[in-house]
């Protein structure tokens, strides 16, 4: 269990982390969300023992990170921002170095190596220097060193940054496969990532926690949650629909996007879905259109929370 | 008893980590070609200094004094070139964040990296042994003196490196680290140079002049290179290394606090 209490980290006058308290339990995959400079990376650097807090403390399984950093570092796997590595080394040499520092010897090193190489599909680049690798491969080398010792706590600073969609998918699969009894903390500004892999979302801005909830409930905070979006084939159809839709029961407001022939209907009572009434209306008017029930728009929620609380 | 046990265990862990870091660092000199350039220039320059500037043949003596006399000056710009990357490169690339979040103490990392550089200068020195063979072929030198000189030169290189390690931890820029280290080492060398000391002699009490001279690499190296390995000189170089490595640890610690 990770217990962060009243954590403060100052850089000169700036409070990068400002009285942040948080508990994370085994089995949780926590997504750290926030605009750039919100304090995500700084918090992670303190958790991994790279930076010291200005005040407050971090307990991991009851051990204070400042009192026994080595014991804690052994349990953590960490991917720093930008996945730094010793670029002049080969992938094999680098991972062997990490394994040795993690206390593995002889055959155990080879065993660990083959495990992560398979998990991160690194076999084709094993004997290449890290400096010549693509951004995606570098990121995977960084991930490989983080999971090499099968840590109980995994802290990943923007793990999918710079990866192509296939690689992103692969990394998310990997994280999902790991997460049974581990604590995983991921920072990201890709919102879909949070709903894709996390069991908990924490939004921070200016070093403070603004929101701490399940990713699904994040979507329900959106104005768009439960709204019905109708995309018709012509502007004329859209106008005909618009006329009638405004008088429909339970419709609070209608938003129209002219050039896309699109209408979005917001319900006044969110518990009652507008899906059926809208479908009936379309049938009645004889309009063929595409209907979508929105789950909620994450970037809108993100903007609302961080801009309201941030200033 | 239990305290002693945990202490020994901890020291054991630390030694393991130091060795692993040292090996990686040492190998990186060779994989970045730095090693080959350094060794080549070191060998060429020490040859030039010995045979041309040192009048190796004209002196008509079978010893390596001209060779060793130039070492402080040779180290003055070669050692900073070696030490500048120790920490500045890690700071620049961000790999320091990786290194210090692995189960390693700052002390372990500082000592491991330093030992790699020191070992490397040892290898460079060993490669000059053909000169030693040459004087043995030409005459009958005092091999004890030469051995002592090699030892002294290596100790001095270690002291230069310890200063360089600290300067490298101060900055992300390898160029700045090079210049800082060069200037500081120059001060440590010049403090014992007769020209400098003479200018002090006129207006400073002799005890002050002596203490300035006693801070210099030159003073301690010259007595070792005459074949006298005194405990005092060895302790001096040892102390310089310990102090500057401790300063490196303080600097890196401060970076985590800042």
Shape of chain B: globular
Structural class of the helix and strand makeup of chain A? alpha/beta
- The CATH topology name of the largest domain in chain A reads Rossmann fold
Give the beta-strand count of chain A: 14
The strands making up the biggest β-sheet of chain A line up spatially as: 6-7-8-3-9-10
Number of domains of chain A: 2
Query: What separation lies between the terminal Cα atoms of chain B?
Result: 38 Å
Fraction in helix of chain A: 25-40%
What's the SSE pattern of chain B? HHHHHHHHHHHHHH
- The whole-angstrom Rg of chain B is 20 Å
- From N to C, what is the helix and strand string of chain A? EEEHEEHEHHHEHEHEEHEHEEHEH
Low-confidence stretches of chain A: none
Rg over alpha carbons of chain A: 24 Å
Mean pLDDT score of chain A: 88
> N-to-C terminal Cα separation of chain A, in Å?
32 Å
Total domain count of chain B: 1
Average pLDDT of chain B: 87
CATH superfamily of the largest domain in chain A: P-loop containing nucleotide triphosphate hydrolases
Verbal overview:
The complex is a heterodimer of chains A (311) and B (258). Chain A folds into two domains: 2-220, P-loop containing nucleotide triphosphate hydrolases (Rossmann fold), CATH 3.40.50; 228-294, Alpha-Beta Plaits, CATH 3.30.70.100. The radius of gyration of chain A is 24 Å and the shape is elongated. Chain A is α/β, with parallel strands linked by helices and 311 residues long. Chain A has eleven helices and 14 strands. In chain A, strands 6-7-8-3-9-10 form a six-stranded mixed β-sheet, with helices on both faces. In chain A, a hairpin with a 4-residue loop joins strand 12 and strand 13. Chain B has helices spanning 2-31, 34-53, 65-69, 71-83, 85-93, 95-100, 106-126, 129-138, 143-170, 174-190, 194-201, 206-214, 217-225, 231-257. The mean pLDDT of chain B is 87. Chain B is built from 14 helices and no strands. Chain B has one domain (9-257). Chain A binds chain B through residues 11, 45, 48-52, 70, 73-74, 76, 78, 80-82, 84-89, 93, 97-98, 100-103, 129, 145, and chain B through 13, 16-17, 20-21, 24, 27-28, 31-32, 93-95, 97-98, 100-105, 256-258.
